[in-house]
Amino acid sequence: MAHLSSRVRAVVALTATIYLVATATLLAADAPAPPREFRVYPSFEGEDADAPLPPDWKIPGELVIGRLMYPSRGFGFFGGDWRQGGTSWTDDYPRGDRTMIQMLRRLSRTSVRAVEQPVNLDDGDSSYWPFLIVGLAQAWELTDSQAATLRGYLLHGGFIFCDSFFGERNWEVFQESLRRVFPDRPIVDLTDEHPIFHTVYDLPHMTSVQIPNMNSLMAGGDGSMAGGRIPRWRGVSDDNGRLMVLIAFNNDVADAWQWADDVRYPADKANLALRLGVNVAVYAMSH
Q1: Closest by alpha carbon to 136, among 39, 235, 249?
Q2: Separation of alpha carbons 266 and 230, rounded Å
Q3: Contact, 251 vs 229, CB < 8 A?
Q4: How far apart are CA 40 and CA 93, in angstroms?
Q5: Please, which residues bridge with residue 237 across strands?
Q6: Contact present, 226 and 212 (Cβ < 8 Å)
């Protein structure tokens, strides 16, 4: 990584304290169940998304990157039983998550755990994990109970990053579950001026950039899928203007994390996606 500016170091140096405050706020909200143990599930992408366990994976961290587990319709291993992995929520998992974690560890003075945390909303421990990645987000089909749990989680300080989906039909499916979480809150298009694009790194033209899908590129495409060629960066905010849900529609940010070390993936887009990931994580911890 290039030399870090004093501004970047100053911003990120605050994250440990802010993360602990955010976690305390979530925990105070609802007497959660004890946190689940770390575990690894198979990805439906197989070896393409596999990643070795880091040697320090057992060491706790002040910051843990969460990965939302969710039900989806008849897809993947184990007869589509999302609770055993191998379904759509494992898109880019775990390699993409761990690449992002490595980036945060290189940048930050915060103690970031070396491995992600799969989070099942039915387990009652979501309050321990204030930042969640939602992969292949168009496929989620939340139950009413899960939607209610996620609503409480977000309103009490949690944050989700919804990624890796393209095309208007998939948007409609994604939106159906999100409307169960927030029936009345608007989903808005973000502008380049939004703080999430400037929290650590200044990304002045982010909303006009598409982070490409690797499968599309390998097939000779332009990086888009399902006709989704125009990137849309959208969000849902709370009553105070805090962004609770970031939506990378017609984008595949975690694909860029997953393939960041592969020469076949555009280096400029991988670097941009990693910088964006740092911004998102720091924003989630500091707002």
Answers
A1: 249
A2: 18
A3: no
A4: 10
A5: 243
A6: no
144-169 pLDDT, tens digit per residue, is: 999 999 999 999 999 999 999 999 99
Pull the structure tokens for residue 157.
């300080």
Burial (CB count <10 Å: 0-12, 13-18, 19+), residue 235: middle
**Which residues, including other chains, have CB under 8 Å from residue 227's CB and lie 6 or more apart?**
166, 167, 168
Distances (CA, A) of 181 to 40, 140, 186, 271: 27, 12, 12, 32
| CA-CA-CA-CA dihedral for 251, 252, 253, 259, to nearest 10 | -150
Q: Name 119's bridge partners.
A: 68
Six-digit token string for 18: 């802010």
In the structure encoding, which two tokens stand for residue 8, read together? 């970047």
Q: Identity (one letter) of the amino acid at 51?
A: A
The answer to whether 17 and 285 have CB atoms below 8 angstroms apart is no
Residue 4 has pLDDT above 50, yes or no: no
First-to-last C-alpha distance (Å) of the chain? 26
Q: What does the alpha-carbon distance between residue 70 and residue 171 come to, in Å, rounded to a whole number?
A: 17
DSSP letter at 4 equals P
